Description:
Strand content: 25-35%
Function: DNA-dependent RNA polymerase (RNAP) catalyzes the transcription of DNA into RNA using the four ribonucleoside triphosphates as substrates.
Largest sheet: 4 strands, mixed
Distance between the termini: 23 Å
Shape: globular
Mean pLDDT: 89
Number of helices: 1
Catalytic activity: RNA(n) + a ribonucleoside 5'-triphosphate = RNA(n+1) + diphosphate
InterPro entries: Arch_Rpo5/euc_Rpb5, RNA_pol_subH/Rpb5_C, RPB5-like_sf
Pfam family, one: RNA_pol_Rpb5_C
Low-confidence stretches: none
Keywords: Cytoplasm, DNA-directed RNA polymerase, Nucleotidyltransferase, Transcription, Transferase
Number of strands: 4
Structural class: alpha+beta
Amino acid sequence: MVDVSQHELVPDHTVLDDPAEVEAMLEEYNVSKTNLPKIKRTDPALRETDAATGDVVRIERDSRTADRAIVYRLVVE
Length: 77
């Protein structure tokens, strides 16, 4: 099977393990976890991570206007 996470067009996906880091991010953006955009646990980009429902994933992608764009997603079933 092909590992899509190794493709050059798939951005880096990192599960935030530290609850303090998640809380700091939520406070910085003044949102709750349920307000974050969703990503399914079965998404091929998450296949190599151990993401569980309720985790927050940081996605770092290249941007034309900024060097790197960072977005956060809530893992759902």
